[in-house]
Amino acid sequence: MNVLLVYAHPEPRSLNGALKDLAVNHLTALGHEVRVSDLYAMGWKAVADGADFLNHDARERLSYVGASKHAFANGSQSPDIEAEQEKLLWADAVLFQFPMWWFSMPAILKGWIDRVFAYGFAYGVGEHGGERWGDRYGEGTLVGRRAMLSVTIGGRAPHYTERGVNGALDDLLFPIQHGVLFYPGMEVLPPFTAYHVDRLTEEQWPSIAAAFKARLDGLFTDDVIPFRRQNGGHYDTQQVLKPGLGHAASGTSIHLVKPGEPEQLPVEVSPRATGTR
Predict the structure, then answer these.
(1) Where's the Flavodoxin-like fold domain (predicted)?
(2) Which domain holds residue 192?
């Protein structure tokens, strides 16, 4: 299988660097082909601007969405964007290796998403009508691929629980796992996390490495997060979860299919969506 590893850390000798190297070596030993996008080593341009579009006239007002749509459709995106899109289409699974900085990803990785997930590639895909709002959240260009975050965290694990001061980790990662990865169709595995890493000792590394290898072994077989598909009949015409779903859940967890709930419900389709009058 083909695995893309998107790596965002400025120091190769960091724990993130060690986990990246471990992933490459272990997955290769398992027979997978691995490509790495080392964003700092690549000098990745994190800022989304008019330079992303070869035919953009700098004298004209920039609508990034409109320019992205036009450039993707006409093959006039910046070559570095096209190269990363090709890697995503090549991959059967995508790993993201990064430290949690200020409750999110490093800016360089956010800039990779901003630029690579172009209009027509990762969003703005599919027909709208009735309960259907395009191909997203379980459908889209990247459907059929798996994704997993590997995140190093400076805080202690209890800080990232439901009652922990930093908030539950599932909630903090929801914008990435649901809003970035599931949105264009990827199935998302639960994250691999290493806590309290600023105080990690050499003696603790073998247990972290063993745990990471176990997760890599299950990259194509472990259960994924059961996010509700947008077009699975769970949401109404305003994209609001229908009554009776979610049970006693609250917050972001209502967007997970609960035990006993069907994965697919009847969907209201408008004449426009079916092509009939």
Answers:
(1) 1-211
(2) 2-225
